[in-house]
Amino acid sequence: MLLSRSTALFKNIRYLNAKKQINTINLNQIRTCFIYRSAPKHETKWVIVSEILGGIMWWWIFWNFWYEYKHLIGHFPELCPADWTDEELGIPPDDA
């Protein structure tokens, strides 16, 4: 950032030295030599293409979240309580 400002400043100083007007610096010329935090204008077709690609990306992410959720939660066997024994459930034996 300082480099872009300094080059514009030096160009203006050199221009003013050539005219022998060192004590008056034209601030409008210094301000228009660089762009700071302003977005460049894009062609409409590239804006549309980027919106379509962004939509495809989010569709892919949500599709995989919905149908391949085990990538997030892990690959564990599904538990079926009917297969557990009384000992695993903490139920005492019948003769106790």
UniProtKB/TrEMBL annotation:
Keywords, alphabetical: Electron transport, Membrane, Mitochondrion, Mitochondrion inner membrane, Respiratory chain, Transit peptide, Transmembrane, Transmembrane helix, Transport
One Pfam match: NADH_B2
Transmembrane segments: 46-66
Main location: mitochondrion
Keyword Mitochondrion: yes
Membrane topology, record value: Peripheral membrane protein
Origin superkingdom: Eukaryota
GO CC field: mitochondrial inner membrane; respiratory chain complex I
Compartments (UniProt record): Mitochondrion inner membrane
One example of a Gene Ontology biological process annotation: mitochondrial respiratory chain complex I assembly
Statement: the UniProt record of this protein carries the keyword DNA-binding: no
Assembly: Complex I is composed of 45 different subunits.
Membership in a protein family: Belongs to the complex I NDUFB2 subunit family.
Its biological purpose: Accessory subunit of the mitochondrial membrane respiratory chain NADH dehydrogenase (Complex I), that is believed not to be involved in catalysis. Complex I functions in the transfer of electrons from NADH to the respiratory chain. The immediate electron acceptor for the enzyme is believed to be ubiquinone.
Protein's name in the database: NADH dehydrogenase (Ubiquinone) 1 beta subcomplex, 2, 8kDa
Originating species: Apis mellifera
Gene name in the database record: 726146
